[in-house]
Specification:
This protein has 123 residues and is an all-alpha fold. The protein is built from seven helices and no strands.
Amino acid sequence: MKEDASSSEKPAPRPIGLDQPEISEARERMSQQSSHQQAVARASGVSQNEICEGWAPPPVASHGAKFRDLTSQEKSDLRKLQINLGHPDPHVLAEHLKAQQAAPHVVAAAQDFVCDACVESVG
């Protein structure tokens, strides 16, 4: 006796992957990530298209006015000194400069200096 072709067919296999509750949770996580990315874009002033997935926005240098008034050579020297001294606090850096009788405007600028690496590691 011949079997009916429709009765011998196997049921369609279930797709391998997530169950329905897991899909809902994944969609929720994606939605939260998307809103987080939008918040980062608004805070950093960078458009949504410019943000790379998984990367933090670049730190924004917030040097004080006294540091910005230095010449480019003085800024460069101050950055190098801060790095070579092991990234001390700006007030400690200013004390080192005072001890070495640096110009008063450089000492004041050292207190206004904000190191990008220090901001990243603290924040």
